[in-house]
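Lab notebook, bench 4. Still working through the backlog of constructs that have no structural model yet. Next entry is a single chain of 206 residues. Request: give me the structure tokens for it.
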Amino acid sequence: MKLSSLVFGTLFGITVVLANSQYSQNEEDCSEEAKTCQEGWLAFNRPQGTWCVKVFPNVSNIWGAEEVCKAEGATLTGVQSTEERIMIADAGRELNLKLGNVTLEGSRLSVWLGARRRAECPNKGDCSALTQFLWTDKHTNGTEGFVWSETNPSGPASQKCAQLLIAMDQKRLARDWCRKILCPHGSLDDTYCENKQMVACGKEAI
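Model written out:
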């Protein structure tokens, strides 16, 4: 609120009026309150804002996975950093341990991410490993999260979706077929969208 007062005085015999203005600031803190994630969601502090992620045990193809996320007011999440990638994979591992799934195979040993193959990159070699896929959640950016298992993304063009691999044997092998190639815990693999995996959803903090 603006407060004004008039000050009268005499200068060299001439009466002058000075406007004395000052502003009073509401003592209430008007700064924006920090946004937070719901209980049970991982909170990642990105430059573009806090991003919340949760892994769900629902096993579904990519389209069903999106429906799972929509029911949570979220979407399939991208991965912006190495920290996010490993923490999401760890969350998947912990969820499997809770469910009693400790085998080397099974649909719960990978998690759907919000990433799709670019139309202009239908085959391996058409684009680099960092540019073959793009994030779909409209929040994730950059390519740091695209850490693929060895030889991946391998194609073919019909492998349009991306999964995050989970190692349950405490070794750096996420799947049985990885024994011939290197598939670290938390690495990515391109795969068919019809396959069934667990779901990693993401949304902005509120």
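Notes after review: Residues 1-31 have pLDDT under 50 and may be disordered. DSSP finds two helices and ten strands in the chain. Flag for follow-up if needed.
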